[in-house]
């Protein structure tokens, strides 16, 4: 069975950090993930998902992310149920985050204001626009198309 979730979106609320009776940190937060298409009216819709993260990652999320922060989540879906205060059975499906990546500097979210930027934002975030290539030994590429056959045994192939 496979249960893997990879999401990139913006937090819909500040993370809520709590601790279990045994002292284990747990943080809850919501994330909005844009759908890759528009609806009949040309509007982009989003899915709103609840996330849970544990231990040191929970403390980091609570300390460094806030409502509007862009984050990458890697984890799994998990369902649970409980009885609420009215005695009704409540079923919950949430993302159990195993890894949370902070995808923009802390000050970018504060500077965004209420503007509606795309999920990628407009900042550089420390990455160059063009990939840097090492051109010093391009002529030494063993797989280059120089007209000669490449000597690779079947044992070296990964398939």
From TrEMBL:
**Keyword line:** DNA damage, DNA recombination, DNA repair, DNA replication, DNA-binding
The organism that produces this protein has a lineage beginning with: Bacteria, Bacillati, Bacillota, Bacilli, Bacillales
Q: Which residue ranges does the UniProt annotation give for the motif Important for interaction with partner proteins?
A: 154-159
- What GO molecular function terms would the record report? single-stranded DNA binding
Q: Specify one Pfam family.
A: SSB
InterPro entries assigned: NA-bd_OB-fold, Primosome_PriB/ssb, ssDNA-bd
Query: What protein name applies here?
Result: Single-stranded DNA-binding protein
Q: Where is the composition biased (Polar residues)?
A: 108-139
The record ties this protein, via NCBIfam families, to: ssb (TIGR00621)
Judging by the UniProt lineage, the source's domain of life is Bacteria
Q: Where do the segments described as Disordered lie?
A: 104-159
The scientific name of the source species is Geomicrobium halophilum
HAMAP family, per the entry? SSB
Describe its partners and assembly state.
Homotetramer.
Give an example GO cellular component term for this record: nucleoid
Provide the function of this protein: Plays an important role in DNA replication, recombination and repair. Binds to ssDNA and to an array of partner proteins to recruit them to their sites of action during DNA metabolism.
Q: Name one GO biological process term.
A: DNA recombination
């Amino acid at each position: 069975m496979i249960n893997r979730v990879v999401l990139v979106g913006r937090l819909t609320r500040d993370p809520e950090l709590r601790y279990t009776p045994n002292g284990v940190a747990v943080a809850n937060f919501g994330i909005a993930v844009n759908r890759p298409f528009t609806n009949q009216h040309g509007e982009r819709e989003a899915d709103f998902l609840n996330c849970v993260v544990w231990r040191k990652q929970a403390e980091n999320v609570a300390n460094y992310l806030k409502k509007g922060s862009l984050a990458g989540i890697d984890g799994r879906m998990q369902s649970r149920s409980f009885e609420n205060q009215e005695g009704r059975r409540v079923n919950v499906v949430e993302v159990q985050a195993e890894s949370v990546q902070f995808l923009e500097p802390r000050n970018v979210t504060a500077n965004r204001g209420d503007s509606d930027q795309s999920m990628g934002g407009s900042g550089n975030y420390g990455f160059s626009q063009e990939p840097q290539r090492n051109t010093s030994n391009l002529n030494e590429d063993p797989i280059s198309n120089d007209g000669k056959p490449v000597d690779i045994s079947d044992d070296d192939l990964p398939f």
